[in-house]
Structures are given as C-alpha cells and as structure tokens.
Design brief:
There is one protein chain. Helix 3 packs across helix 7. The protein is globular and about 55 Å long. The chain has helices at 15-19, 40-48, 99-116, 170-173, 179-183, 189-210, 213-221; strands at residues 31-34, 57-60, 81-88, 121-123, 127-130, 133-143, 152-160, 229-234, 237-246, 252-256, 262-265, 269-273. It is 26% helix and 26% strand. The relative contact order is 0.15. The protein has a seven-stranded mixed sheet, with helices on both faces. It has a five-stranded antiparallel sheet with strand order 11-10-9-8-12. It is α+β, with helices and mostly antiparallel strands and 280 residues long. It binds biotin.
C-alpha cells in the first residue's frame, strides 16, 4: 500500500494528549517529547545526569539511531510506533534489576491485551510476539552509580503499532509485525501509551513492595517459548534444549538435549525452533 493511501489516526504523542486523564502517581508526569531523536535511551541518559524525578518519559516520533539489545539497531520510523524510555529509580537489590525487563515486557503485553483484546506472548527476557512476529522489545540500561542517589534504570520500550508489512525493510519483513497488522485496523497510540504507563506503574509499585511473583506468573502463563526447543546464546556459550521454566530468579531453565540435565540462564538471546533443527 502506498503511504498516501494509508489511513493514519491523526495522532501525535504530544505530552498534553498523553497526560489527559492519565491517573498515575508518577509515571509520565514529566514527558520530554521530540519529533526526532537518535535514540530515546541516549537522551534519557543525558537527562539522568541532571537528577530528574522518577517516572520521566522520553518520547520520539522517530529515532534515527534506535538501539536494540546486543548492539543491534531498532527500526523506528516516524509516527507509526511508540519509541520511549521511562526512567525509574528502583530501590531494589542489584540482583532483582533484570526482573524489571520482564516486568516491562509483561506490562506492555497487559496494556495491549486490555486496550485491544489481543494476546501477545513474552519471549524471555525482553520481546513480545503476536502471530509469531516480533511486535515489541525492551532495552533496559542503567545510568549513574549503581546504588547511589543518581542511579537510574532506563527502560527503553519499542512497540510496533501502526506499521503495515511493506513499511518494514527486507530482512525485517519476514519477522516483524505490528498491532495494526494483527488487528486489521489502525491503533490509537495515545490510548495505548496511557494504558501502558498505568499498568507499568501499578506492576512496578507492587513488585517493589511485594516481589516479582505476579510478574513471573504472567510471563509463564503468556510465554512464547516455554515447552519449545530453543537455542540460547549467553555470553560466549550456546545452549540447546527445551525451555522448561522461568525460575523465581527470572532466569530461563533449559532441559539440555545433549548433556542431559538442566541449566538456569540469567541473561541471553533465544532463538526458537519448531522442529529439532528448523528455525521458527
Ligand atoms: C530489542 O528488542 O532488542 C530491544 C528494542 C528496544 C527499542 C527501544 S525504542 C525506544 C528505546 N530507544 C532505543 O534506542 N531503543 C529503545
């Protein structure tokens, strides 16, 4: 479809539109909005140096150097997605911080389910899949001295909202999807963002007070990989086997196919296989 034929909702993620009726305690109370940025995470890191309040959101309609995990780039065309970074100051032990990536992914999934009645799945630890296509990712980074007063967690969130298939460049077209592609209709980005901020804050406050059991339960119930045969790259190591559990520490448990036994992996990159050697 040519872009001139495409119907977009005339939405811009203006702070005053997002904040209209936003009932959070702190998330999104301060929004920095840009029509274009290299990367919202990069801008959030600059802002973290001037000690902003927790809950600051950096939003861009377009990123020219959007970043994904493991040094990859993140395709961020103008006006079609939600490209944002949320700054948090979690008073949690360092070992708990990786679970905030899962928390953010679960919050995006819950917001999409509540707003659009779609059912995305969480691909441990940071991706969301819908109709077997990646529709969102989380890039969590730290800024400032860990444990110090100026320490921040930068939760970078990318959600493919209103792209159509031909918007994605060649190599992404096979793998990437959008909410619009699954729903068959354009999506109101403002309503979705407002819902995400509300759900994220609610989950975050709950987890900081009561722990991550609820987030972990959600990720297990809505998992893209549990029960599947996967390969996980973690640092220099590669593991192959069946994904059998998300552990209470947030790690992925694999039942190894060659050595036997299980292994718990705290951080890594998962590829899924539908059969023993065929990549899904
Ligand atoms: C991944 O799946 O690898 C994570 C993708 C994270 C992309 C988002 S878009 C907003 C924020 N700014 C960035 O440069 N990256 C994150």
């Amino acid at each position: 479809m040519a872009s001139s034929e495409r119907e977009y909702l005339p939405d811009r993620l203006y702070p005053w539109e997002v904040q209209k009726g936003l009932a959070t305690g702190f998330a999104g109370h301060w929004i920095e909005y840009y029509t274009e940025l290299p990367s919202t995470n990069r801008r959030a890191r600059e802002l973290a140096a001037v000690n902003p309040p927790e809950g600051l959101v950096v939003l861009a309609e377009k990123q020219t150097a959007g970043r994904g995990r493991l040094g990859r780039s993140w395709f961020s065309p103008a006006g079609t997605g939600i490209w944002m970074t949320l700054l948090l100051k979690p008073a949690l032990p360092p070992g708990e911080l990786p679970k905030l990536t899962l928390l953010a992914a679960a919050a995006v999934a819950r917001a999409i389910a509540a707003e659009l009645k779609l059912a995305p799945l969480v691909k441990w630890p940071n991706d969301l899949y819908l109709d077997s296509r990646k529709i969102a990712g989380v890039l969590a980074e730290t800024a400032g001295q860990a444990g110090g007063p100026g320490a921040y967690l930068l939760l970078g969130i990318g959600i493919n909202v209103n792209q159509v298939s031909t918007d994605f460049p060649g190599e992404l077209r096979e793998k990437a999807g959008s909410l619009r592609m699954s729903l068959g209709a354009p999506v109101d980005r403002i309503a979705l963002l407002r819902r995400f901020l509300t759900v994220l804050e609610e989950e975050y406050v709950y987890a900081c007070e009561k722990g991550f059991a609820r987030v972990l339960a959600y990720c297990r119930q809505h998992s893209f990989i549990l029960g599947r045969y996967v390969e996980v790259r973690s640092g220099d190591r590669r593991y192959r086997g069946r994904a059998v559990a998300i552990r209470d520490d947030g790690g992925l448990e694999l039942l190894l196919d060659d050595e036997g036994g299980t292994v718990g992996i705290l951080a890594g990159e998962v590829s899924c296989f539908s059969g023993a050697h065929e990549q899904a």
